[in-house]
Amino acid sequence: MKNIEIEDDIYEHLLANVEYIGESASSILRRLLGLQKETSLIVDSTELVQFLSSVDFRSKTSAVDRFLAILSFAYKDRGQRKFERILSLTGQKRKYFGKNFEEVDESGKSVFPKQIPGTPFWVVSNTDTPKKKRILRGALNLLDFSKNEVSVAVAALDRFN
């Protein structure tokens, strides 16, 4: 296998044409150049992995939007009773999750709570991507997603940058 350097705009084009999580650059190029007919089968595909491969998810342009989308999926998949487990996730001073805006907002400065779409829950949004990854990993583990699903979802926060 050979390594090549490509310009940023070409890299962005490759990422925009990813069909599934984990698709290699070679696979994308083969498809775009018509060099080989290839299927889009995802090994060990689960509903979460399929969601992360969807056009809807891939259209999310920011880490915050992807973070919220994954949490929204988890709520729909696991249900409210199980999802309430995430309320136990906190930082040293901040509450990461709450049942309303104020609960999260009052736990720190500049937390910028956002409602998780399709849920009655709120989450802190003013954290860097590595922190979002730690929060997401903790939440998905509490919700009993498999290690593989958690790893794929956490990687998806910055997969399409």
Protein architecture, described:
Helix content is 48%, strand content 4%. Strands 1-3-2 form a three-stranded antiparallel beta sheet. Helix 5 packs parallel to helix 8 and helix 8 packs antiparallel against helix 9. The longest helix is centred in the middle third of the chain and has 16 residues, at 63-78. The two termini are 24 Å apart. The model is unreliable at 38-43 (pLDDT under 50). It is mainly alpha-helical. It folds into two domains: 1-41, Orthogonal Bundle (Arc Repressor Mutant); 45-156, Replication modulator SeqA, C-terminal DNA-binding domain.
The parts where pLDDT drops under 50 for at least 5 residues are 38-43
* CATH architectural designation of the largest domain: Up-down Bundle
Q: In which range does the helix fraction lie?
A: 40-55%
Tell me the fraction of residues in β-strands, as a range.
Answer: under 5%
Strand order of the largest sheet: 1-3-2
The CATH homology group name of the largest domain: Replication modulator SeqA, C-terminal DNA-binding domain
How many domains in all? 2
Tell me about the biggest sheet? 3 strands, antiparallel
Order of H and E elements: HHHHHHEHEEHH
Count the beta strands: 3
By helix and strand content, what is the structural category?
mainly alpha
Q: What is the approximate shape?
A: elongated
Distance between the termini: 24 Å
SS summary, helix count: 9
